[in-house]
Amino acid sequence: MQQHPPLIIEGATVVFEDRLAPASVRIEGGVITAIDGARDGAEVIGGHGHLLAPAFVDIHGDAFERQVMPRPGTMLPVAPALLETDRQLAANGIATAYHALTLSWEPGLRSVENGRAIVTALDELAPRLLIDNRVQLRWETFCFEAIDLIRQALAGPRLPSIAFNDHTSMLLLDPSVTLQERPFELDPAYPALAPDSPVFADKMAERGKRAKIPAAEMVSLTGSIWERRPQVKAAIDEVAALGRAAGAPMLSHDDSQIETRDFYRGRGARISEFPMNRRVAQAARDAGDFIVFGAPNATRGGSHLASIGAADMIREGLCDILASDYYYPAMLLGLARLLSDGVAPLQDLWPLVSANPARASGLLDRGVIEVGRRADLLLVDWPDGGVPCVR
Hints:
Radius of gyration: 21 Å
Strand content: 15-25%
Structural class: alpha/beta
Low-confidence stretches: none
Number of helices: 15
């Protein structure tokens, strides 16, 4: 966090935890030191006509991939891509970002090799970055080669989170079964396609482009990885133990069954990320888990996968957190859409993108405007009835 001389932001409408109210906020050494205190020679920033709010804490964002690979199969150097990503995050009001770094058996963008390069680069670039860049180790459970990197990252200077993903089983899912209703991936009766079937070959064409390998080679690779299935549960147990020992926040991704949520909760993953139907979200709520949906879902008024809508989940008390997912501006635009649709007052919506993701991630020093908290603040130009943007 960069250090600045004492300053006061005054005249803005401040988003507190329980209300919107005009107030001045004093900042010293990157920390909020007073609300409506004396100026005492501090630099003054005029916030009149603007909204002053806690900056966003993004628990899951993979838009950085577009800087690393702006076109399918076209990779750019990692360091400049991350510097550009950091500036995009700051410009969109995100002061803490967990980059959803997929660690997969696929070559290319989501490979372990590229993941290692990104983890290393973020450590080296840290003094030059504007915001708190962390990683969500979005681990593909069939990728045993990633476990050493997970161990290394957990010992690093900025504790990552761990998200358990099984896109391998999703790739093999028989198309007669929807993603939203697929069985628990470790179910012995899981309805999988044969890796040598024509239907599966068609599914692999786009995957091959991203991995920069021919579709036939992608089919063969996926088939060999699928043979690891009997060892996957032991690998999950190993990674979950590493996460618990480090105190890392842990998530399970795209839960489609209560059994799935129960399985990962039992291993310490208390965050359900993008549950795919109401009964799973309700089971997560009943168990006291955090529930995450995508801010683009809220912005667009529905999921791009035809899953449940974030707005409906918020109304029903089944959403705690909105994440940028694949589009950084959606953190603010999602709030605007939810507010205009009358889902909730702004002071009740804002914790979805600040206090709640901070708490779920164990970052108790940020996410609200209070004396003693980090001064990760966002000054927003939000004309009445207009589109908000970060000043």
